[in-house]
Amino acid sequence: MNNVKTVYKKSEGLTDKYMTYCPGCTHGVIHKIVAEVLVELDVLDRTIGISSVGCSVLNYDFFNCDMQQAAHGRAPAVATGIKRVRPNSIIFTYQGDGDLASIGIAEAIHAAHRGENITIVFVNNAIYGMTGGQMAPTTLIGQKTTTSPNGRDAKTQGLPLRIAEMMATIPGATYIERVSVHNPQHVRKAKKALMKAFTIQKENKGFTLIEFISTCPVNWGMTPKDAVDWAVDNMIPYYPLGVFKDATVGEEK
Amino acid sequence: MNNVKTVYKKSEGLTDKYMTYCPGCTHGVIHKIVAEVLVELDVLDRTIGISSVGCSVLNYDFFNCDMQQAAHGRAPAVATGIKRVRPNSIIFTYQGDGDLASIGIAEAIHAAHRGENITIVFVNNAIYGMTGGQMAPTTLIGQKTTTSPNGRDAKTQGLPLRIAEMMATIPGATYIERVSVHNPQHVRKAKKALMKAFTIQKENKGFTLIEFISTCPVNWGMTPKDAVDWAVDNMIPYYPLGVFKDATVGEEK
Amino acid sequence: MISEKVIIAGFGGQGVMLMGQLLSYTATAKELNTLWFPSYGPETRGGTANCSVTISETDVNSPVISTPDSIIIMNKPSLDKFQPKLRKDGHLFLNTSLVKDVKLRNDLNIYKIPANDIAMELGNLKVANMVMLGAYLEVTKVFDPESVLEVLKKKFTGSKATLIEINKKALEAGKQAVL
Amino acid sequence: MISEKVIIAGFGGQGVMLMGQLLSYTATAKELNTLWFPSYGPETRGGTANCSVTISETDVNSPVISTPDSIIIMNKPSLDKFQPKLRKDGHLFLNTSLVKDVKLRNDLNIYKIPANDIAMELGNLKVANMVMLGAYLEVTKVFDPESVLEVLKKKFTGSKATLIEINKKALEAGKQAVL
Amino acid sequence: MSKVLMKGNEAMALAAIKAGCEAFYGYPITPQNELPEYLSKHMALHGRVFVQAESEVAAINMVYGAAGAGARVLTSSSSPGIALKQEGISYMAGAELPAVIINVMRGGPGLGGIQPSQADYKQITRGGGNGDYYLYALAPETLQEAVDLIKEAFDIADYYRNPVMIAVDGLIGQMMEPVDLDREVPKWDLTPKTWVADGNRKNRERNVINSLYLDPNDLENHNLHLKEKFDDMRKNHQRYELVNMKNAEIAIVAYGSVSRIARTAIEILAEQGIKCGILRPITLFPYPKKAFHALPKTVKDLLVVEMSTGQMLEDVKLSNECHLPVHFFGRVGGIIPEAQEIVDKVLEIVGGEKHE
Amino acid sequence: MSKVLMKGNEAMALAAIKAGCEAFYGYPITPQNELPEYLSKHMALHGRVFVQAESEVAAINMVYGAAGAGARVLTSSSSPGIALKQEGISYMAGAELPAVIINVMRGGPGLGGIQPSQADYKQITRGGGNGDYYLYALAPETLQEAVDLIKEAFDIADYYRNPVMIAVDGLIGQMMEPVDLDREVPKWDLTPKTWVADGNRKNRERNVINSLYLDPNDLENHNLHLKEKFDDMRKNHQRYELVNMKNAEIAIVAYGSVSRIARTAIEILAEQGIKCGILRPITLFPYPKKAFHALPKTVKDLLVVEMSTGQMLEDVKLSNECHLPVHFFGRVGGIIPEAQEIVDKVLEIVGGEKHE
Amino acid sequence: MAKGRIIIDIERCKGCALCNSYCPVNILDLDITTTNLKGYTPLISTDPDKCIACGFCAIMCPDSVITVERFIKEAK
Amino acid sequence: MAKGRIIIDIERCKGCALCNSYCPVNILDLDITTTNLKGYTPLISTDPDKCIACGFCAIMCPDSVITVERFIKEAK
Ligand SMILES: Cc1ncc(C[n+]2csc(CCOP(=O)(O)OP(=O)(O)O)c2C)c(N)n1
Ligand SMILES: Cc1ncc(C[n+]2csc(CCOP(=O)(O)OP(=O)(O)O)c2C)c(N)n1
Ligand code: SF4
Ligand code: SF4
Ligand code: SF4
Ligand code: SF4
Ligand code: SF4
Ligand code: SF4
Ligand SMILES: [Mg+2]
Ligand SMILES: [Mg+2]
To answer: Which residues surround ligand 10, an ion (CB under 5 A)?
Structure first.
């Protein structure tokens, strides 16, 4: 039809497989914008995504590019392994907060430390979704999970880790930003952040990490909309959005 | 003798065993002040030290207290295991930069993240001493090691990690300081830092880490004095001394 | 001698796990042997959930029910999965509110219960499972509904205690549905 | 037929590893079979270092020398460790600059070489090892010093080339010491 | 006490508390999550320690530390998580530290699947870590047995100063059965832990927990000392059950949940007039070689049934010492064998020709 | 080409380069450090990749990634480091990825010691990771053989899409021997790697590297597919050497550096008129069962000699199928057995009474 | 008149009701009269004519259920 | 007159020469005329009378080789 313009449709960066996420989980939103950016940068054909262990483990079925599934927490190491032998490829890992902030923090830090030219998509939903809602390093104080049944207690379980802030101190890292997908405006902002990160990678400028504030309606025990609101009210105050490191700055001007 | 006062002698915090470090290695200096602090705080009898894997692996023979030898990089986990079941004990780990900054960074970060009430003595000598001088995450740009034979190259090996700076961003950590032992004045300062750290632990105020700039004359290929001077000229500029986090501040005044 | 092997299956959220557990709790209270085994893991997310319950006066051996005596089917995919396994002359309890227009074997005892509709009438869709259970108990006579209710009372304490009444009604309604 | 098993031992830094390697390199150049095996790891730090060299026209089997034909001893702890292993009538080369007042077996061929003193005279303490090697070669005739020097020339290139002359002198001085 | 209906993972957790377990360190993984979840609530209620570690590697090293400080300590995981613990387990065996490790097995290799499996048999009995060591490994088949063995396992670990592995699978972890948590279990003869490095040094010399022996002579002696312990386990503490062996013509060798299915199978076989017994290993290490000597002469064939491609076969062959033909039936990847499949296999053997 | 004198670790490194190894990912550990050190210099010279990983865990997962992208890839470590790699190795076997892993064994358990040992036999042959898988495992005895096997190992790994383990010890890693690096080795029949996920997707569908199969049916099929590969290895690719077997009355079973010592022992024995042969496994998995069938009738006893407390004994018993008495002599913890000790043991056996 | 329209791929919809809240003209709801094959209550537009083709719903839908089309006024 | 003195535990000394550089009165050197049992050339004070008992040498010695004593002037 000539008098109709498609302003939004499912990205070609995604396959047609039915996504296994729970209804209303923002993992799906993040998948979409990653896929869109890969298509818009015209790199899908040379991209290898790394699925990590978490709810997103099956996304090797969802992203419409070469994929490798990595052991829990080790996606940045797998990414390093690939990128070093296939430097022309575009590599991203997609990791949850259990995967990256807990078991895999060493691999994430050292990929940044070596300045690996890869992009980490880090999905912080303050919980272990896949395994049924255990406490994550990013679980907020007072938040109830199956392993903090009385709410996370600073005394015995510590204060939540701020990954973007921590990773930003690593000299080898190029770009670190924290974004959220709680409304269309922020989805667009988040996509811009991804665009920046993948562009940096495309230009061989080094390590990039985008942290996403995300939801887990099922394990938080909320409707998807309430979950998004909870994230805005509770997570963003502790995990402020913004650019935490941008080593391309001076150079670009 | 009445007219003689001993102003310095070997600490009772050390055993009589012959220390296995190479001649002039500052590991020995750090051992001495750790031992002295434990004696001065009168906690030797309830201290458990954790030897890590590195040149200091045998220091379970040197510190005159209960000791546990930990797997490479895992000393903070071992410390956590102990402290939680024996909260009245004083626990320190003694870890090299290979041990803590490379293989063990996850365990160090998460001990801080949980706010474990332990003290980490972190010895940064910019190299793997024990195994014959391989590159560490803290090896300086241009520094030659057996696995960076042409000098560390930022392009392929990244920029050196700054541990104190990175750990200081962890909300759960209480006190982080970087010190050096390159002359008597700095040894005294370093001892003060240790005193502060162990005092914080004694008062159950949480996680403390003291990073030491140290030398490896043998693998750096220098005399002990040249090594100390090299550390001052090359390491301290990249690894500035100072307090990076002190969560006791407001409270103390 | 009681010896019953039942599989209960439906969507996640329909309370099939609880149904099975109630049977096993009741069996335990009666000092019978019993075993409850659920489907588990992410496969259950959004998809189907089921559990197997064995109740016996002798030891329960195999935890897996190859040939159930009864199946309680809360949705269509579950029928496809479990109908073939049901033993000849076994009892098939069908939630006909959700399972319609399906092919049924002709060597079975089939009980059609519009459980969702009944539950809605009772005022809470969530008790559709108890409606099915009421029907199941009435037909198989494994336990009387009172024993199950006894267990329910022990489990539903505090704020949940208010739910006992409606569950009781649901059990009764299920019973009526197959009378 | 050449068949030689020698252990070379001393402090770390005395160049015992190099001595052994030179023998194995020379053997390789002559297309003989050979095997060099060092003590390794932190035990060698500050403490003693040693290596075993086997040279043979037939296959070298066991990499471990249980009963050496010769031992070259650069310091006292090494004498204690290896003298008992030396075969009867074996050759014991002793750096008497450092190993003094010791008990020696009387079923051995013993060569006393003040290697450090000789090396000092030559102007470089570091070549004490080559002095010992010179003595060893002269007695055992395993290789002529020229062949070893040939290898040394290949190894010492660039700035190290200047060291060849003094090493040559050291080999010669060692030879003289046992003539 | 009367029995309570509990989920396997929770019953095992509670059994540990009853055994005086002072601390749990672990990391979530399906299908054992209810175990740490239960403990996260109940350890604190008992004044005990629960820590969710950052990883399995950290967890086992926390266990190392707490055990070295003299505490009774537990960790649990499932197959890939156990793989990650191998270095730490080797350290514990090397440093002679007691602990109980529960492995709720799932399908492999790699990430594999999450359904029940016995594919970690090699990992459990042959050690995935470096060096000459073994774990005392117990494989219960019911929740009651799991509870009883876990309670005893802490004693066994302390007795031998060696980690004890409880080998179960997703079935046992996820099922509910009535259990009596207060049944008496054998008490082992334990001596005070004078070797602990717990920072409580009033009347003793300092203690050191360590597995490093740079002098090969010392390390050899240490290894021989450890070997004595493993030999003692082999000699004195094999465990097994023989079921229905009287006049049996064939014996099924199966452990854990598979032996339960075998029990159903032999009932079906009995109806068909086939006398089939079960040799059920309870210890996977030490493997119950003695059970094979105890088989009646009537047994002419052995059928090994496993949820693996045949990992226990070697132990059966070694124990059986070439006396009887050994057959195999296995399902893998999370598929649980059905009793009828076992029955069919038995019929094939007793009916048909014998093959290895 | 004429031979060059090289240290074992360096010769193995160079062999990998000659085999077209495109990338090395590893972490330092004694006694294999010269291997990564050599590669840190020489890989770059050949335009290849060398990365010192932050840990053994990271290293094996880098290997996983590079192998998944189709590269020939190597890692090396020593015993405790290999224990840390177990999860990753299991993943590689599960995802069917080829790679070569060199284990320069040292004493254990735990930190143990750094002297030569063969105490990882179980870890190597029975897998320390979870699930039903094996590694093709080669145990060279000389540097020449090490070089030749490593060159072939990359082919074998590609052929089977499975990791290949090179099992050596500190002796082989640290010794120097003359080697010919350019000897021809068998070429395996390799098909193009159409399965790689390397981001080079011109004319193909997207590829996925994965070991997860949530549906048990799929996972069972996958396991059975893997088993076929391992069975094929067992059937077609056992390797061994029989030495001096003609009329031998006793056979020593020994691999790697111990078989070299055994060679010296049988020379001594020959002088004393005792005919002793050596059965030398070259593949530890598949274990060379065929070698036992090939033993001459004159052999009346088997003597297993190892640098472990007897980890290979089970394989020998299984292969020997109860035909001959099996004896054992071992040294552990870094102690290298002396030829004379082996001689004495043989004399005890052929002279004295037979015992198991 | 509508500025555009949305096309709902009903079988992919999980009835999560996330999109609804972001529609500026409030025309989205779940269609409780039906369930799709997966058992979910799918999305429906209650007043398609009001759609301004802003795309907010589509952007927020985690499952790419919604396609948004804008009607283009024909030039002159 | 010396303000104090140092006592050198010769057998523990590794002859590393680290301490020397810190002596404000420059009286420390290695005694190349001898080696200790471990084979090291140990430290010696070349002019003990000059020692001011500052302790710098002892503080810097990694091996706790040096004990420092200060002479106390007798009260009156
Ligand atoms: C080695 C290992 N440990 C544990 C697990 C179990 N596991 C699967 S997913 C997961 C947590 C995932 O949480 P997160 O990364 O936050 O992802 P989410 O599901 O929340 O998106 C865990 C612990 C595993 N598969 N492997
Ligand atoms: C799991 C494991 N990996 C590697 C090693 C080998 N290793 C021993 S010490 C060491 C490095 C130590 O370096 P560092 O921590 O900097 O201590 P230093 O010797 O410099 O004081 C390594 C890699 C080991 N023992 N265990
Ligand atoms: S469990 Fe939570 S994070 Fe995982 S898919 Fe469901 S809602 Fe999303
Ligand atoms: S190797 Fe370096 S760090 Fe280790 S003891 Fe020697 S000088 Fe010190
Ligand atoms: S495109 Fe905009 S106006 Fe139209 S339905 Fe979606 S949110 Fe509402
Ligand atoms: S269209 Fe998308 S966001 Fe809206 S209810 Fe359906 S699945 Fe949820
Ligand atoms: S105490 Fe001071 S003055 Fe005396 S020798 Fe030592 S450094 Fe010199
Ligand atoms: S006294 Fe101490 S610092 Fe001085 S040379 Fe001796 S060992 Fe070195
Ligand atoms: Mg999460
Ligand atoms: Mg270091």
So the answer is: B 96-97, 125, 129
The CATH fold of domain B27-246: Rossmann fold (3.40.50)
Scan residues 32-51 of D and list those with Cβ closer than 8 Å to H. 46
DSSP codes joined into one string, B52-117: -SSGGGGGGGTBSSEEEE--TT-HHHHHHHHHHH-TTSEEEEEEEHIIIIIITHHHHHHHHHTT-S
Distance CA F36, CA F45 (A): 14
Reported as a single tens digit per residue, the pLDDT across E227-277 is 999 999 999 999 999 999 999 999 999 999 999 999 999 999 999 999 999
Residue B96: CB within 6 Å of ligand 2? yes
Stated pTM of the model: 0.98
Domain segments of chain F as ranges? 4-236, 240-350
Strands B47-51 and B66-69: parallel
Q: Is omega for the bond preceding F286 within 30 degrees of 0, making it cis?
A: yes
What is the per-residue pLDDT across G6-57, written as a single tens digit (0 to 9) for each? 999 999 999 999 999 999 999 999 998 888 888 789 999 999 999 999 999 9
* F83 interface with D at CB cutoff 8 Å: no
Fold of F4-236: Rossmann fold (3.40.50)
- Tell whether the model's pLDDT for residue G75 goes beyond 80: no
Tell me if G14 and C46 make a contact (CB, 8 A cut-off).
yes
Whether B228 lines ligand 4, by a CB cut-off of 6 Å, is no
Distance from CA of A133 to the nearest CA of C (A): 12
Nearest CA in chain F to E117: F131
Nearest alpha carbon, ligand 1 atom 5: E29
Secondary structure (DSSP) of A100-128: IIIITHHHHHHHHHTT-S-EEEEEE-SSB
B95 CA → ligand 2 middle, Å: 10
C-alpha distance from A214 to closest chain C C-alpha (Å): 19
pLDDT band at B253 (very low <50, low <70, confident <90, very high): very low
B242-246, strands of its sheet edge to edge: B242-246, B173-180, B207-213, B119-124, B90-96, B47-51, B66-69, E208-209
Q: Which domain holds residue G13?
A: 4-70
Distance CA C80, CA E191 (A): 60
Closest CA to F111 of E197, E60, E214, E134: E214
H or E element in which residue F147 lies: helix F143-160
Amino acid (one-letter) located at E243: V
Mean per-residue pLDDT pooled into runs of 10, chain F (356 residues): 92 98 98 98 96 98 98 98 98 98 98 97 93 98 98 98 98 98 97 97 94 96 98 98 98 98 97 97 98 98 98 98 97 96 97 52
Report the pLDDT value the prediction gives residue E356, as an integer from 0 to 100: 41
pLDDT at E87 over 70: yes
Q: Is the ipTM of this complex over 0.85?
A: yes
- The mean per-residue pLDDT over the stretch D37-48 comes to 74
- State both tokens at E181: 């948590």
Q: Percent of chain C at pLDDT above 70?
A: 97
- Counting one residue from chain A and one from chain F, the pairs whose CB atoms sit within 8 A come to 141
**Residue in E55, E63, E206 closest to B81 by CB:** E63
| Predicted local distance difference test score (pLDDT) of residue E354 | 41
- Give the total number of structural domains in chain D: 1
Query: Residue G41's domain is classified under what CATH number?
Result: 3.30.70.20
Q: Look at residue H30 and tell me if it is in a domain.
A: yes
Closest ligand 7 atom to residue H56 Cα is 7
Instruction: Pick the residue from chain E with its C-alpha nearest to C36.
Output: E176
Residue B80 identity (one-letter amino acid): T
Amino acid identity for residue C54 in this structure: T
Range of the domain at C152: 3-177
Q: What total of structural domains would you count in chain G? A: 1
DSSP, res F298: T
Cβ-defined contact of B147 to F110 (cutoff 8 Å): no
Q: Is B212 in the pocket of ligand 4 (CB under 6 A)?
A: no
CATH number of the domain at E240-350, please?
Answer: 3.40.50.920
